[in-house]
Design goal:
It is built from seven helices and 32 strands. It has helices at 33-43, 58-65, 86-97, 116-125, 178-185, 196-205, 225-236, and strands at 2-7, 27-28, 31-32, 48-53, 74-79, 102-106, 109-111, 129-135, 143-147, 153-158, 167-175, 210-214, 219-221, 242-243, 246-248, 251-253, 256-258, 263-265, 268-270, 273-275, 280-282, 285-286, 290-292, 297-299, 302-304, 307-308, 313-315, 318-320, 323-324, 329-332, 342-343, 348-351. The strands form seven sheets. A seven-stranded mixed sheet has the order 5-4-1-6-11-8-12, sandwiched between helices. Strands 14-17-20-23-26-29-31 form a seven-stranded parallel sheet. Strands 15-18-21-24-27-30-32 form a seven-stranded parallel sheet, with no helix packed on it.
Length: 352
């Protein structure tokens, strides 16, 4: 089995962060989202992976992942010239797949327990397709699957106004080579895209076997700021204390990781929290559920329930539920209360 990871798209729901970076590279617990999915594939025994990239952000993806050797993978890249749908993106990779079974993974999704279980189940039962599902409170916002008593998929409905199921599609799909015929047979949807749900429905309508598995644990689509911060919180629930950097004065409580080369002076840190290499924090309060990127400089600040990317400078500000892009600076006379911000990279905010 080979893996295909979709890492194109414009990330409009995460702007302004994604004006200048791929949404799949936004960090969760100081690690790019994309790397979690790639590691899940490696853990499931899938070592040959093709990443679908866009012309706009593909170079950043290549620099981040490289050959994949650090993740135990052999990674290739295919460019999707235009955002013409998930089925179109998979179709771009099918010449590389060359008739093998394939696992398609959306690069901005995260699955708590990985994909090894669903890969094993697919190999045991050998259907034409297997989809991963999760129960949601608002199925009208998702593609929804209707199942028969055996767990086989009877119908897929995209964002139904009256859902007959609370089982939403997760961004993990497994196919045999029949998916090629399905993609060739469908037409663009009303929004002008080749939908993967239409391709799977074609398989169902042509008597192919489409099985399902339900996620154990949690799943997150990190396409919105709120979901990204929640994913950061969920990942850090499993954080193990590991203080390698220098801590002078102050106190560190709970599961906190301080990377080698970081320096904390008279800081109060409440875990779960993670502080990247060469970060410099002085008289600052951090946490809980906060990730501070590499080389950040924080002075007389407070940050909680937030993600600060690399090289961020914060002097005197109090941040809560914030997402701050790379090389952004906040300084000057800050508001006295906590503020919630979403800032792209290389911004500068000066308080008065």
């Amino acid at each position: 089995m080979k893996g295909v990871v979709l890492s194109g798209g414009s990330g409009t729901r995460l702007r302004p962060i994604t004006h200048s970076m791929a949404k799949q590279l936004v960090p969760v617990a100081n690690r790019p989202i994309l790397h979690y999915g790639l590691s899940d594939m490696a853990a499931a025994g899938i070592t040959e992976v093709c990443i679908i990239i866009s012309p706009q952000t593909g170079d950043d993806i290549r620099r981040s992942v490289g050959t994949g050797a650090d993740l135990g993978l052999d990674v290739s890249y295919v460019v999707q010239d235009e955002p013409a749908g998930l089925a179109h993106a998979l179709g771009c990779a099918l010449p590389w797949v060359d008739g093998d079974d394939v696992l398609m993974y959306l690069g901005d999704n995260m699955v708590k327990r990985g994909v090894a279980d669903v890969v094993d189940d697919y190999r045991d039962k050998d259907p034409n397709c297997q989809i991963l599902l999760t129960r949601v409170d608002n199925p009208s916002a998702f593609g929804v699957a209707e199942l028969d008593d055996r767990g086989q998929v009877m119908r897929l409905v995209e964002k139904p106004s009256v859902p007959k199921s609370d089982l939403a599609l997760v961004g993990v799909y497994l196919f045999d080579d029949s998916i090629s015929e399905a993609i060739d047979s469908i037409q663009p949807s009303a929004r002008g895209e080749l939908e993967i749900t239409d391709a799977i429905q074609w398989l169902i309508d042509h008597d192919r076997t489409v099985n399902s598995s339900v996620v154990r644990g949690w799943w997150k689509d990190t396409g919105r700021k709120e979901d990204l911060l929640h994913a950061n919180q969920l990942v850090m629930r499993d954080l193990e204390p590991d203080v390698q950097g220098e801590v002078i004065g102050g106190q560190v409580r709970g599961p906190v990781q301080v990377a080698a080369g970081a320096r904390l002076i008279d800081c109060d840190v409440t875990g779960p929290a993670i502080i990247g290499p060469r970060a410099d924090l002085r008289r600052t309060t951090i946490g809980p559920n906060t990730a501070i990127g590499a080389r950040c400089e924080l002075l007389d600040a407070s940050v909680e329930e937030s993600i600060l990317m690399e090289d961020v400078t914060v002097h005197g500000w109090r941040l809560r539920s914030s997402l701050v892009g790379r090389s952004t600076r906040l300084r000057g006379a800050a508001p006295s209360q906590f503020v919630e911000l979403t800032l792209g990279e290389q911004c500068e905010v000066i308080g008065e």
